[in-house]
Design goal:
Low-confidence stretches: none
Distance between the termini: 39 Å
Structural class: alpha/beta
Strand content: 35-45%
Shape: globular
Largest sheet: 7 strands, mixed
Number of strands: 11
Number of helices: 8
Oligomer: single chain
Length: about 240
């Protein structure tokens, strides 16, 4: 079983419970400026997870569809979406079970580079292209590999809901890998792997170009600063489908 089929389960909700809706709201506010869409525009949140950004986008008046492979995270998203503002759908980002094109596709929080083969990761960008209307806009928010390598915290430990969470991080074989060990006195120890293949700006831009996606801006964070290899924590590509 691939790591991403195991890692996004119930324990993921505990490990990442500190991610808040407020933060997502501020990020989405910035995204709206970048996308420049009209109210009612149709937006696809590809790899929506538990739906924080999807729901914030819906609050701002867009028609939002959230797609994710994890049933656990989608179940959480449905629970949080009390007013049923978003259409939730289970699917693989390499083969999204949708045909209608969108005004915008967003792929956030480094939900990219999950696959070992470049072709598989490139396939995701081809799907973004397929799912966009002519001139449709995209945002791909990826980690900055240069910054990540320089600032990697090899190990951290904390307690959450009475469980001890140990996180070990390393860069191996061109990937940043996080190994998570959860020790819970009432249950057997659990171990998970999370991994993202590292693509620098040049490589990422080449993949986007190959997929027919044109880059308008590269930001280094949601503050809107331009990307700087040494200083930026993120590498956020904003652009449109050519044609």
């Amino acid at each position: 079983m691939a790591w991403y089929q195991e890692s996004f389960g119930n324990d993921y909700l505990i490990v990442y419970k500190h991610r808040d809706l407020q933060g997502a709201y501020h990020e989405v506010k910035k995204m709206i400026d970048w996308l420049g869409l009209n109210q009612g525009a149709e937006v696809l949140d590809l790899c929506c997870g538990m739906g924080r950004h999807s729901m914030a986008l819906a609050e701002f008046g867009y028609e939002v569809t959230g797609v994710d492979l994890s049933e656990v995270l989608l179940h959480e998203a449905v629970k949080l979406d009390k007013d049923k503002q978003v259409t939730w759908l289970r699917g693989d980002m390499r083969e999204v079970p949708l045909d209608q094109p969108f005004d915008a596709v967003v792929n956030l929080f480094s939900s990219f580079g999950y696959f070992d083969e470049d072709e598989q990761n490139e396939q995701v960008l081809h799907e973004v292209h397929r799912l966009l209307k002519e001139g449709g806009r995209f945002i791909i928010d990826f980690l900055n590999p240069v910054y990540t390598q320089a600032n990697l915290v090899p190990q951290s430990e904390r307690v959450e809901d009475g469980m001890q969470i140990l996180e070990m991080r390393a860069i191996e074989e061109g990937c940043v890998r996080k190994r998570i060990v959860i020790t819970d006195k009432d249950a057997p120890q659990r171990k998970y792997l999370e991994q993202i293949k590292l693509y620098d700006r040049t490589a990422f831009e080449a993949m986007l170009q190959k997929a027919g996606l044109h880059i308008d801006h590269v930001y280094g964070g949601y503050d809107g600063q331009a990307y700087e290899a040494d200083a930026s924590s993120r590498m956020i590509f904003v652009g449109h489908k050519e044609g």
